[in-house]
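Re: weekly structure request thread

Next one in the queue (183 aa):
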Amino acid sequence: MDKQPVIQIRNLSFSYDGPRVIESVELDIPDGEFLGVVGPNAGGKSTLLKLILGLLDPVKGEIRVLGVSPKRGCRHLGYVPQYPAFSRDFPITVEQTVLMGRLGQGRILGGYGRQDYQVAARAMRETEIFSLKDRQLSTLSGGQLQRVLVARALACEPRVLILDEPTANIDMRVETDIFDLLK
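Done, posted below.
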C-alpha cells in the first residue's frame, strides 16, 4: 500500500490580480524525496512554495501538506527563504536566530527552555556553525548566513524542509557544501 504524499497538489492555479502565475499544477511529493523545482526567473517557483507554506491562498485547486491544509500543516515545515526578511544589521546573534526556529514549538508563555537550546545547538552543529553562535549576523559571509538560515529551519524539527534558492548569491564551493549538508 502506498503512503500518502507529504505534499499533494491538485489543479492548482494562482494569480496576483492579473494573469495566472501558476496554472493547473498537479504534484505529489513522497516522504523522503529530494526535489528541485527549476524554471526561469518570474516563473512562479517562489509563489508555488509560498502556496505550499500557506502564505498565499490559491485561486483554484487544493494543496495538502501532511494530509491537512497548508495553514495547519505549516508547523511541520522548515523554510529557508530566498532572501532573508530581515536587515543583516539587526543586532541579533547566530544562536538567537537559530532559536527563532523553536518559536511555537514548545512553551505557551514564551521564552526558551533547555530542550530548545539543545535542539538549536544540534542544528548549529549539523550545519557547522556552532563556533559562530555568539557572532552577530552582520559579521557573517553569505555562505555562513545561508547555513544559519538552514539551521533555523532545522531547529523546528520539520518533517519537510523547503528551501527557496538555497544557493543564491554564494560561491560554487559553498554551494557544494550546502548541498552536501542537505543530503
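Helices lie at 45-52, 70-73, 94-99, 114-126, 142-155, 172-182. The chain is about 30% helix and 20% strand.
Next request, please.
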